[in-house]
Amino acid sequence: MSEPGSLTFFRERFDVDERSLARILDGALERKIDYADLYFEYATQDSVALEEGIVKSGDRHVEQGVGVRAQAGERQGYAHTDEIDLESLRLAMANARAIAQHAAQGSARAALPRRADAGPNLYPVASSPTDVPVARKIDLLGAIDARARARDPRIVQVMASCVAEHRRVLVVGSDGTFAGDERPLVRLNVQVVAEGSGGRREIAYQGMGGRYDFAQLEQPSAWQPLVDEAVRIACLNLDSVPCPAGAMTVVLGPGWPGILLHEAVGHGLEGDFNRKKTSAFADRLGQRVAADGVTVIDDGTIPTRRGSLNVDDEGTPTQRTVLIENGVLRGYLQDRLNARLMGMAPTGNGRRESYAHLPMPRMTNTFMLAGEDDPEEILRGVDRGLYAVSFGGGQVDITSGKFVFSANEAYRIENGRLGAPVKGATLIGNGPDVLLRVTRIGNDLRLDRGVGTCGKDGQSVPVGVGLPTLRIEELTVGGTEG
Prior knowledge:
Layout: H1 4-14, H2 18-29, E1 35-51, E2 54-72, E3 75-81, H3 86-100, E4 114-115, H4 134-151, E5 155-173, E6 177-195, E7 201-210, H5 215-218, H6 220-236, E8 241-242, E9 246-252, H7 258-266, H8 271-275, E10 296-299, E11 320-325, E12 328-329, H9 336-342, E13 350-351, E14 360-361, E15 365-368, H10 375-380, E16 384-396, E17 402-414, E18 417-423, E19 426-430, H11 431-436, E20 438-441, E21 446-447, E22 453-456, E23 459-462, E24 464-467, E25 470-478
Parallel strand pairs: 4-6, 8-18, 9-16, 15-24
Antiparallel strand pairs: 1-2, 1-5, 2-3, 5-6, 6-7, 9-25, 10-11, 10-15, 11-12, 13-14, 16-17, 17-18, 17-19, 19-25, 20-25, 21-24, 22-23
Helix pairs in contact: 2-3, 4-6
């Protein structure tokens, strides 16, 4: 939960104290404001990118500021400033209050901020990943480049990059919330280009990351399999054939294909869409929305995961939330505003891109629990279909649940065996409907390697996904072969 180091950092660096902040919040509540809060942030980030064997780019920046929010009914006023001092906070709060108070329902008085009890830290690190010398990062990228080229002579281009971030946050609310967090985050990206006979080129990407020390990326057991996988996929796709089109059985591989679950189902379970009744899942709590055996979880408490948080961006501790249990809809993902308006409890899913943005309900690590089926048996039971191992981009309409996803590694299934790799495969369907078409669930749940970034309303936040091997009947596949 709260991280004392983060609290001490803001108090000492910017000379803010609990009583002064309580007076600012108290001033907001004098104008018939239901709730107000302050979100402090200080973030450092650096990145290095290598291409054609040389460092092509590198940057380092620092971002600091405070977001100030006032709520009245369902109306929110928001202002932010990059000047962290009491006078700037008063001015920002006055602006936020002026926006929100037109719809005010009542008035209250701010409670003196109180620290939450410190819980287990989900991502302890020995030192900030942004303190690692840039020479170490360049050495790692150079080793990646050399290994990729040595793996196969058809690799003609290698691009690799690493990004490190250390973010300190402090949330102070008029209800007495006083919670801080220190959030490390690292990510390694590898992209290779393979060229075959006739000049055909294929690109493959792999990545990994999480909330841990940069030293974990430097372990050969971490980055070498990443490189080997990128090379394998790029070279494999040199021999890919056009993807067949039509309705067919689709088997999703474990891990990253959980992005389909995230987009097609997860967003539809966020509280704001359901409060406004713009989600296909609105007013369906307690109803069957998926096949027997389908249980979907959002869990922000998994140690070191990219989507995990000690507390969310409203100071609420994250938790394990059951969204769908054995096919029945059990809950939504909630921030404080939508939870209050829907008469529900917050679930620790209030998230924002930075201090310059309002929080909203967002996923953390979203995945389907494993079933009991042997993944090999699932494949052997398919006469004709598609096996999708990894996805690229996709789109989803929250209101209808309709989605389109492109696969960047997929294979024909013929008589229970994997056939040729295919190119140009897209999966087309409807989120609520596709879960009802699930007929087999593998016993091999796997989480992704830590590369997910979720976009919503112009904001991006790190997330995680996961899935066991999954068989879906009569899913529409778009392809290039009639």
